[in-house]
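Here is one chain, start to finish.
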Amino acid sequence: MKPVFDVAVIRRAEAELMAQVDDGELMQRASHGLAQEVIALLDQRCDGPVGARVVALIGAGNNGGDALYACAELVARGASVVALTTAQRWHEAGASALLAAGGRIEAATARADGGEAEDQSKLIRQADVVLDGILGIGGHGALIEPATALAAKAAASAAIVVAVDVPSGVDCDTGAVEDPQAAIWADTTVTFGELKPGLLVPAGANQTGELTLVDIGLSSFFEPSEARAQLVEPEDAAAFLPLPGMNDDKYTRGVVGVVAGSADYPGAGVLCTGSARLGGAGMVRYAGGAPGQVISAWPEVVISREGPASAGRVQTWVVGPGGGTNQAAHHRLEEALGIDEPVLVDADGLTLLAEDEALRKKILQRSADGLTTILTPHEGEFARLGFGLATGAHADRIAAVQAAAVELGAVVLLKGHSTLVCAPSGETFINTLADSALATAGSGDVLSGLVGSMVAAHVARSADVTAAALAEVVACAALVHGLAGQLSAATLRPVTSVDVLRAVPEAIANLRSLGSNSE
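Its structure:
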């Protein structure tokens, strides 16, 4: 896991480090790391830094200073650099370093009809790299002229747009973007010290591009409790995907129960049960409404003709995908929530929760009793549960999901290109490993079964079954699902949820390989 910190915490850590090092040392570390990343990009996509054309968009603060010092280093490596200043002042020492190295500095022109503005437009059009050093981590709100026009020209150019620490116009704490057209669209963001929440969640993540973290020596100045969230990495998921031991049997590996599918939506039962077989549990019990189709697809699944309460011992129940919202479906969900094991609720189950206050109270009571309920809504279902996601300047996806987890008394997984998982106690996990191919019917059914299986396997072998511990498992399952999406899309062929399901074993094998290599 990589910790993710709010700006105020990062500022405090920076101040503590700066008090222990020479004046300007922190900026030198950041600018050198930035220059090295730009050189690596030029090596990969161009013919290296010699002769490369770089345009830097420079604001008034230290972010502009980072960019100016980096530009001086790029000039020393043979690049041609022009810095366009967007404010009445700029970092003087950084500017002096660039000029001394042989770079140029010009004041950006807001007017589009002037000759100077046209010359600057041509500079950006012909650039190999555009550096965004307009606003730093303390920036808020949309860009103003002349920065807005320069951002638009950078976006329209063929240049590699590299944001310095954060794309200007993105709120580092929340990911809010007041106006996407008055913000930088970066191909790559080189951020310093620690990860920031707004770079990992929409809408900020959409503007960030590929994210690279440069170490400047801050890590020892944080306490783990100060992190707002944790970014899940492949090695973390590998830890929840152990191979069976020589003394294991199907019961010691965990049993997952599935209540999914119906006469109208049998495919949901097949997909959900199909992935439940793969996430580590040694056995799957099926108590849904499409037993014939499920057993035909997966003969190893144990069919129960009764509801969850009579199906036999399981470590986790998955309820809802394609199950319908009639009285029978309501009864099965109510029955599952009465069992003293983790319960995942998805799809039609979430619709039932949204319509029935008594079911929601039952989840709160489960939380009070130390039992975990996992809810996996997409944005529409999240809204139906009563939790809207603000947009524009007021967006704060993390805060919204954290609030929902507290109010519902459940682990909440909000689906999306960046998956957020929050426990009622506040622990928050972010998964950014995903693929747009997952935006296909039935993909959520695959995710639900996979989460249920990995949770059941964890419960069977671990004494830590708190909501916080299970939230970590849930986030890691989302990463496995995301990797399966990437693998299924790798050939550029059209992707369906069946393809995603078929890619899950390969995703798990790849992750297990990572885990074995790290030992």
